[in-house]
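Morning, I've got a small favour to ask if you have a moment. I owe you a coffee for this, so here goes:
>
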Amino acid sequence: MQSPEERTVQIVSDPVKRTVLAVLSETENGLTVHELASQLLRSDAIPGRSEAPNSPFQSMVVSLHHRHLPQLEDWDLVDYDRSQLTATISDAEEETWNGIEALYSAMTLLSPAAEQTTILHSRQEVYEHARALADRAMDELFLFYFSDELLDEACLPYAKRAIDRGVTFHAGVKDESARTFFTEQLPEATVWEPQMDWVDGPIDERPQISRLVLADRSHMVLGMWDDPTAPDPSEIAIVASGQKNPLVALVRELLGPRVTHLDLQRPIE
């Protein structure tokens, strides 16, 4: 059972829940799930949504219906009518939401980077955001796969478009068959076997890193397996952007010797 403080932190750090509450607090009669999804996809507060390929509207509707609105209802912040697919902000909790909104505004003023760090809760969301980063990259794109299970030919057009724009594409892949896949499909890319000492840990340690995508050394998505030993592990991810974002800066610091001096790595012919 989450404490009120834990719920507040989760809402402040989750742009979807935060925006849902902000939008509903400004409507008298509530909104349908489809109306909410449309407003969320137009919101600047949801990073990566406008750039995501293959309109994410239906994905957002499903996410609202099955995860965000039921959670907000459980926390007594929203009244959600599943039969009518309508949501309204709870009258009893308007004061709570005002406090959350004030806290978020203060955090944003004190630390702009806080607004640029979010959480993704499914493998599909991670795929969509990683592809959006590939489409956003202007100079260089670093891709690290720690599991060949994530290889997806549907991602290749995004990588190829980036290369065609003149983006320098590097793929660090631990698995030999995955490296072969990249060298065959993307001959212009630099593919190598990265040193993994900075992420390796006990096999049963949870969570375990699944992938890292870094665009222009300022936008990143870091995926993690919730339970890497499960037959079909679920994936969550941290998304961060901005040169001054602490997470982006930390990843640059960790990867610096590896991504800056690729000529010291052994390329795959």
Remarks:
- The beta strands are 31-32, 78-81, 86-89, 117-120, 140-145, 168-173, 190-192, 208-215, 219-225, 235-241.
- The radius of gyration is 20 Å.
- The chain is about 40% helix and 20% strand.
